[in-house]
From TrEMBL:
This is Coenzyme A pyrophosphatase. CDD domains: NUDIX_CoAse_Nudt7. Gene3D superfamilies: Nucleoside Triphosphate Pyrophosphohydrolase. InterPro entries: CoAse, NUDIX_hydrolase-like_dom_sf, NUDIX_hydrolase_dom. It comes from Neobacillus cucumis.
Length: 204
């Protein structure tokens, strides 16, 4: 391959996150609604019939499908499907920072306002129940943060003879922070709490 061929390939390349084509891509919506005492954040409790994370607290959302126009469209579609509302009642949608998890997932979070929230009829196949928390609670209460260590474990046929130090190689310690909010008997944690914390940082 000559230099001109190399340069042509480089000029036509659009940078992206390396390996992102193998990542699962999801979009979620942090729903806001207005009650008598002010703005609330709406949460779902996942149906106990679901295979993945049954009974956990989350925001509406799911995997981005081929028919979705973009990440925002996916977040709105999932919200409409899970809350049983009309698409026109999801307004003022704004993106938050997207997140890359250490488990091969890219998450695109958005914030949106739910009009006519009295019409919400959760889809029982996906949503066990819903509840709301006053936005002021999160503004005045910091999340609890706990560190989780991620230990590297090379597979059995890993070629230790090809790296300095071999089996004694000093792997860089890695970890992740898990966020928690406690509200009554509810524990809001994980990516849901992390998205919520990021949102609160922005509006403060």
């Amino acid at each position: 391959m000559d230099l001109d061929s190399v340069l042509i390939r480089l000029k036509s390349h659009t940078p992206k996150i390396l390996g992102s084509e193998r990542f699962s891509k999801y979009a979620v919506l942090l729903p806001l609604l207005k009650k008598e005492d002010g703005i609330h954040v709406l949460f779902e409790i996942r149906s106990l019939e679901l295979r993945r994370q049954p009974g956990e607290i989350c925001f509406p959302g799911g995997r981005i499908d081929a028919q979705d126009m973009d990440e925002e469209g996916a977040a709105i579609r999932e919200t409409v499907e899970e809350l049983g509302i009309n698409k026109i009642n999801v307004t003022n949608v704004f993106p938050l920072d997207y997140m890359i998890s250490p488990f091969g997932m890219i998450l695109y979070p958005f914030v949106g306002y739910i009009n006519n929230h009295e019409t919400i009829k959760p889809n029982p196949a996906e949503v066990g129940e819903i509840f709301t928390v006053p936005l002021s609670f999160f503004i005045h209460n910091e999340p609890e943060i706990y560190r989780v260590a991620l230990k590297p474990e090379p597979e059995g046929n890993f070629p230790f003879d090809l790296i300095p130090g071999g089996q004694k190689y000093n792997w860089r310690a890695r970890g992740m922070d898990e966020y928690f909010y406690r509200y009554g008997d509810k524990a809001i944690w994980g990516l849901t709490a992390r998205i919520l914390s990021h949102f609160i940082e922005i509006i403060r």
